[in-house]
């Protein structure tokens, strides 16, 4: 089968539109986190309702990703991208004018659904619009765009909150997506040639299953991991996902073609962002808290220190994409990036409350470079292993692994950190405050020591996970025996000339 396309392709405009939308999605995550204190003060809220400004977005973003990707293959990737961008913009605009925290949380949930449409269809658009070396460059640029959004989000949001108020942050996201929508008409439409009805039952079961699983992980630290509520959410989510697999094995038009999951190398590439969550995203989330709480940094200085990790994410993807085009194996680069995560996390155990910035600059640069090397290259390599008509489904599954793992791993990492701090301070309530950066409970030196001890153990643990992941993924990416004399990853599937719809 070939992908049926319609319209005149404008590759430069296509790339610009997708990159702008892609940069806005992570910007909406990292930027909203900076706006939380201002939101809490303005709307007179705190605790769980305030935290759901973040959680609602992450929950729907992860849960709808796979469904959005499969739908894009059927109804058209450009149409799905435009719909997702419009929903994202509408949710951001609603968040900017929300009079209370409940409506704000609902608006953020709507934005998450739109973000899923953008991420799932945007990658599929690039996979079908570009070939060969051009595709590698496009996905490298995609990695840089995600890095830009992640890195610029906190700084830009902090400036907006300080000058115009927190509502301007969400207004900016709506404006950026509106700009992207003006160029959608120049993006060529593409879809699978055969369009069976979407498996609505499978889609509903998957959204409910993953949603319950992520919700259980998010609520675990608050309700307690052994509480009946969390146990019910996790068990219910796992059970529904098992049912989803059974349904997909029997469906004539599955939301997820299980042959994708059984493709060893494709699945291994989908595990790369999961390992990256352990090695990179956890640091991006919890290191600023440590620097502010235990080391006494200002929020602004902590954000500046993080540039040591985020700057390489902006610069390395084009470099690694160029290396691939010059014959360097994606398998080699991906394995190297995961080993950099392991080395960077292990090296960062030199951190201490009174330590100098020079001591942690090396490990932060190594970790950021590891992220930059794999961003884009892994996605491009994964998409080279699937047929064009499955581009949306494959992108949806890949990003489901990425976003779902972030929501779950970050929650579990935080709970482990609190437990480790508790062994030093003797109180779980106090440990939770310390993990959040509040060391005002008396004996700040003792609390800082407990935080440092916990963080070092967590860093050693993540280093071990990344090292094991690097070895396992390197082995899984080995080419089949019948193609051992060819490149580590196969050439892209041959395509037939596109046909006007």
Automatic annotation (TrEMBL):
The keyword Iron-sulfur does not apply. PROSITE patterns: MFS. The chain crosses the membrane at residues 51-68, 80-103, 109-127, 139-162, 168-188, 200-219, 225-246, 266-287, 299-320, 332-351, 357-382, 403-421, 457-478. It comes from the Bacteria. Residues 14-481 form the Major facilitator superfamily (MFS) profile domain. It is a multi-pass membrane protein. SUPFAM superfamilies: MFS general substrate transporter. It is found in: Cell membrane. Keywords: Antibiotic resistance, Membrane, Transmembrane, Transmembrane helix. Its main location: membrane. InterPro entries: MFS (IPR011701), MFS_dom (IPR020846), MFS_trans_sf (IPR036259), Tet-R_TetA/multi-R_MdtG-like (IPR001958). This is MFS transporter. It comes from Streptomyces eurythermus.
């Amino acid at each position: 089968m070939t992908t049926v396309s319609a319209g005149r392709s404008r590759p430069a405009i296509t790339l610009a539109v997708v990159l702008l939308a892609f940069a806005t999605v992570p910007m909406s995550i990292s930027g909203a986190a900076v706006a939380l204190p201002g939101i809490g003060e303005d709307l007179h809220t705190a605790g769980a309702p305030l935290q759901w400004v973040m959680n609602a977005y992450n929950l729907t973003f992860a849960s709808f990703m796979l469904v959005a990707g499969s739908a894009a293959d059927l109804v058209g990737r450009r149409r799905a991208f435009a719909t997702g961008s419009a929903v994202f913009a509408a949710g951001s605009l609603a968040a900017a004018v929300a009079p209370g925290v409940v409506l704000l949380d609902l608006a953020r949930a709507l934005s998450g659904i739109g973000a899923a449409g953008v991420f799932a269809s945007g990658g599929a658009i690039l996979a079908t619009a570009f070939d060969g070396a051009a595709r590698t460059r496009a996905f490298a640029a995609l990695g840089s765009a995600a890095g830009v959004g992640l890195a610029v989000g906190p700084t830009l949001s902090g400036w907006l909150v300080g000058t115009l108020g927190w509502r301007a942050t969400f207004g900016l996201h709506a404006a950026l997506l509106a700009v992207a929508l003006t160029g959608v008409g120049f993006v060529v439409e593409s879809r699978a040639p055969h369009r069976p009805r979407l498996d609505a039952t499978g889609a509903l079961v998957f959204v409910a299953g993953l949603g319950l699983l992520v919700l259980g992980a998010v609520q675990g630290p608050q309700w307690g991991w052994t509480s009946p509520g969390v146990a019910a959410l996790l068990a219910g989510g796992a059970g529904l996902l098992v049912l989803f697999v059974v349904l997909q094995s029997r469906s004539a038009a599955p939301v997820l073609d299980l042959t994708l999951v059984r493709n060893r190398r494709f699945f291994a590439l989908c595990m790369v962002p999961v390992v990256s969550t352990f090695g990179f995203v956890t640091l991006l989330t919890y290191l600023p808290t440590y620097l502010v709480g235990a080391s006494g940094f200002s929020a602004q200085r902590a954000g500046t220190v993080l540039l040591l990790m985020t700057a390489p994410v902006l610069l390395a993807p084009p470099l690694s994409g160029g290396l691939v085009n010059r014959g360097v194996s994606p398998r080699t680069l991906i394995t190297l990036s995961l080993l950099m995560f392991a080395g960077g996390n292990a090296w960062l155990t030199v951190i201490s409350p009174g330590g100098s910035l020079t001591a942690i600059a090396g490990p932060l640069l190594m970790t950021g470079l590891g992220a930059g090397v794999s961003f884009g290259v892994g996605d491009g390599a994964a998409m080279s292993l699937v047929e064009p008509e499955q581009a949306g489904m494959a992108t949806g599954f890949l990003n489901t692994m990425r976003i779902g793992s972030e929501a779950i791993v970050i929650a579990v990492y935080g709970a482990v950190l609190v437990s480790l701090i508790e062994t030093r301070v003797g109180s779980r309530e106090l440990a939770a405050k310390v993990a959040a950066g509040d060391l005002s409970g008396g004996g700040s030196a003792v609390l800082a020591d407990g935080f440092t001890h916990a963080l070092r153990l967590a860093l050693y643990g993540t280093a071990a996970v990344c090292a094991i992941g690097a070895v396992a993924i390197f082995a899984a990416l080995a080419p089949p025996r019948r193609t051992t004399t060819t490149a580590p990853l196969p050439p892209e599937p041959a395509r037939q000339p596109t046909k006007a719809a």
